[in-house]
Design goal:
The longest helix is centred in the last third of the chain and has 23 residues, at about 765-790. With about 800 residues, this protein is α+β, with helices and mostly antiparallel strands. Helix 17 packs across helix 18 and helix 19 packs across helix 28. The protein is about 40% helix and about 15% strand.
């Protein structure tokens, strides 16, 4: 439809020339809809405004300026200001004042105080532009506009030469925006990381008290008041449509399923039956392919669905739509894939891990109550193992039979009254769930109640939350408890931290606690049992970030780190123990066995590695290279102890088998700097030494020749519970760099694309910390490689062997 044009005399064309049907209003640029008045408004080219009457179904004038002017002239009264608008409220007020005057009470009420809608800002960078100031302060509310020009009401103050001096006045449309601007922007930098000329920016209430005393209020004409009304209407409309004008400011909440993609025919049930480990490979392949389209937050495989269903959740709806476009109709493993956005009605089935575990127990003749008890014990299975080896029951009462159990009991336990022993342990978590599970379990009374320290919010697998925000609020309380335990020790060797490197609490808060304890006790030893994450066991995509940031801290603050690799534990359960679907209980069983073996020399009488410092002297040739691989033999699944009978040669063979190492690194790809073997049970020392010499002679290329006597052996006559003999291996091998390379490659793949980085920077971290952590871990890998390639011939020029003196005849 052609737009009507003004007549020759300048007046608007007849109203019949404008669109009369609301369906045509969208196509006419002069027509807009006011949400405030719930009406269509038409503005002609000469400035007149009309509103559409839905009852009369035609346009009617909103204000007739000529008619008003004629009326004012015709009915003008002397002594009355015709420019002033009179309302019904003002008439009522005037009548009340007249009535009061007649009664002799002519005092008027004080005028209503002016509402402040402006902020005064100082310390803005001198090169800041008008638009930049508008962008910063518009985040706190709608900025008022000039009546005629529509320009935001921001005044930039200048000096005598006309240069901006870093001060500005910002006027908001609503007074609530003033408090929000002060709360959000006061004492912050105008530009992130760049302080202003006087430091952080200062934002405060604008003070107009002096202005009201110096300047008399100006009268506003009727025409200006109309302009103000129109401008206010537009600003109110803008305020009401704030989220509509900027849809990116808030997340789209039209549907919580618009980021979830359903993929069908991605696998077959027969394929999963033949190879249970294929689940992880399929999920990894899908995650890798879909990550090309956007950030993938979760991948779930429904292994009970014949149609081979997998769900992929993206962080962005656009990426989900792109995934559907790319995957729908595509062939995967010879089958056509169906892809669509979820609508919330889907009900797919997958294996319930707890139910599967109960079914497995039923086949073995155990009941569910045993499984629930085992689940709780898995949380702190190491203390259950150690307590049993020292003859303690679930409440800490000694029921042992050997004096050797009591001889060094005080290394890990405090003696209390009633022949009861309490662990020297502090249990920490950022959420109460784990603590409640331990206290409710059969070993809950073993620990001192004051030594449970926990928060309420959790870390959400975010290293920054554990290290800088949530963990930082709790760490002082933890250090106080640790200090109290340390003061109760007669001869403090050091501290032993058990934590994971993949989560938010263990990795983030764990490394924070390590650094705090190091500050408090700088001359004591720091040993850690650190569980390295693996995608085979967990679906948390940010684990490489958490692990790399943690290794960066451990290099600097730890003296001994025993690396327990989830990937290696998973492979041992699958390949060696033939467990088709390993649970965390199976993995923790292996962890508790190796931790018990490593600490044997600390807890029972012996000469080798009898305290943490001696262990470091024997195992750490260079301070930064203190990351150990550990192993245990015989490897058995839970409940299979009594069916295993082993010999010293078999133990030695298993102990040095790469498949049985609890770090996913093959020692044959590196060289041992040092190693230690701890045998337990009724074992002949001569037989042990013969076997170790035999191993070293057959594998000389796997040991550096420039460190003499780099294999240590120890013997403890007390065997583990349920076994007649066992052996534990501790190795400082350069091949552990494979573990760091694996984590580093995963880290680099995400960091180069800045994937999930906002979760960390939102907690106050800087990208430079990621770069430093990556660089430090790469340096660690290079150092291991350097000493792996080193040979004794390189130092021959520096060190000349002295010739023996010949005796005179």
């Amino acid at each position: 439809m052609a737009s009507p044009t003004p007549n020759d005399d300048g007046r608007s064309p007849p109203l019949s020339n404008f669109p009369q049907d609301p369906s045509e209003f969208d196509s006419d640029p002069r027509i807009s809809f006011s949400k405030l008045d719930d009406k269509f408004i038409l503005e002609t080219e000469d400035g007149q405004e009309f509103e559409y009457d839905t009852v009369l179904k035609r346009w009617i004038p909103t204000v007739d300026e000529d008619l008003l002017q004629q009326q004012q002239e015709a009915y003008k009264v002397q002594g009355v200001n015709e420019e002033e608008q009179i309302t019904a409220a003002q008439l009522r007020k005037k009548r009340k004042q007249q009535a009061s005057a007649e009664e002799g009470n002519g005092q008027q009420k004080p005028k209503k105080q002016r509402v402040n809608t402006a902020v005064y800002v100082t310390s803005i960078p001198l090169d800041a532009e008008f638009d930049e100031i508008r962008d910063v302060f518009s985040k706190c509310g709608v900025i008022a506009e000039e009546i005629d020009s529509g320009r935001p009401r921001i005044k930039m103050y200048t000096d005598e030469s006309g240069k901006f001096k870093g001060e500005a006045l910002v006027v908001y449309f609503r007074p609530e925006s003033v408090n929000l601007a002060i709360q959000m922007l006061d004492d912050s930098n105008f530009r992130i990381g760049v302080p202003g000329p006087q430091g952080p920016m200062r934002v405060q209430h604008a003070d107009f008290s002096f202005k009201s005393q110096q300047e008399a209020p100006t009268k506003t004409s009727m025409r200006d008041k109309k302009k103000i009304m129109r401008r206010t209407q537009k600003l109110n409309s803008k305020l009401a449509d704030w989220d509509d004008d900027d849809p990116s400011a808030l997340p789209d909440t039209t549907s919580r399923f618009d980021k979830l993609v359903i993929l069908k025919h991605m696998f077959t049930l027969k394929e999963l039956e033949e190879d249970p480990a294929a689940i992880l490979d399929i999920k990894e392949d899908i995650r890798e392919e879909c990550s090309k389209l956007g950030d993938v937050t979760n991948v779930v495989l429904y292994d009970k669905e014949p149609e081979g269903v997998v769900s992929v959740r993206f962080s962005d709806p656009e990426a989900a739509r792109s995934c559907v476009k790319m995957m729908d109709g595509r062939f995967f493993a010879g089958t056509r894939v169906d892809a669509y956005i979820a609508d919330g009605s889907e009900k797919f089935k997958k294996t319930n891990e707890k139910r599967a575990a109960l079914e497995d127990l039923a086949e073995k003749g155990l009941d569910a109550s045993d499984e629930e008890e085992e689940q709780r014990l898995d949380e702190f299975g190491t203390w259950q193992t150690i307590s049993g080896e020292h003859g303690l029951d679930g409440s800490g009462v000694y029921n042992g039979t050997s004096d050797l159990q009591l001889e060094r009991m005080n290394v890990y336990f405090n003696e209390a009254s009633g022949n009861k022993y309490v662990p020297r342990a502090v249990l920490v978590d950022l959420e109460p769930g784990t603590m409640d599970a331990v206290r409710a379990g059969p070993f809950g009374q073993l620990f001192r109640p004051d030594n449970f320290v926990f928060g309420q919010s959790g870390a959400g697998n975010n290293w920054a939350k554990g290290h800088y925000t949530e963990g930082a609020e709790l760490v002082d309380q933890v250090v106080d408890v640790v200090r109290r335990e340390a003061e109760a020790c007669d001869c403090l060797q050091g501290f032993q931290i058990t934590h994971s490197l993949g989560g938010g609490t263990g990795a983030g808060m764990g490394t924070l606690l390590i650094s705090k304890i190091r500050e408090e006790f700088p001359d004591r030893m720091m040993a850690t049992f650190s569980v390295v994450p693996s995608p085979k066991v967990s679906d948390t995509v940010v684990e490489p970030y958490n692990a790399t940031l943690s290794v960066h801290q451990l290099v600097e603050h730890s003296d001994e780190t025993f690396c327990i690799d989830n990937e290696a534990l998973y492979d041992i359960c699958m390949r060696t123990l033939k467990l088709s679907n390993p649970s965390y209980g199976d993995l923790n069983h292996l962890v508790s066995a190796v931790m018990s073996g490593v600490t044997t020399c600390l807890r029972f009488p012996g000469q080798l590695n009898s305290d943490l410092r001696k262990l470091a002297v024997n195992m750490v040739p260079f301070p930064r290279l203190h990351f150990f691989m550990v192993g245990f033999a015989p490897l058995t699944s839970r409940g299979a102890y009594s069916f295993r009978a082993v010999t010293v040669p078999e133990l030695t063979q298993q102990m040095f088998d790469p498949k049985n190492m609890m770090a996913a690194s093959d020692f044959r790809n590196g060289r041992y700097l040092t190693c230690s073997a701890i045998f337990r049970g009724r074992v002949s020392m001569k037989e042990v030494e013969d076997q170790m010499r035999n191993i070293q002679s057959k594998n000389q290329t796997y040991f550096v020749e420039w460190i003499p006597n780099n294999i240590q052996t120890a013997l403890c006559s007390i065997p583990p519970r349920g076994l007649k003999m066992s052996s534990t291996f501790i190795g400082n091998s350069t091949s552990i760099q494979e573990l760091f390379k694996r984590v580093g490659d995963q880290f680099t793949a995400m960091f180069r694309r800045k994937a999930f980085l906002h979760w960390y920077t939102g907690e106050g971290m800087d990208e430079m910390e990621f770069t430093e952590a990556e660089s430090n871990m790469n340096d660690l890998v290079s150092e291991y490689q350097q000493y792996q390639d080193a040979s004794i011939s390189e130092g021959e020029e520096e060190y000349v062997e002295e010739e023996p003196l010949e005796a005179e005849e």
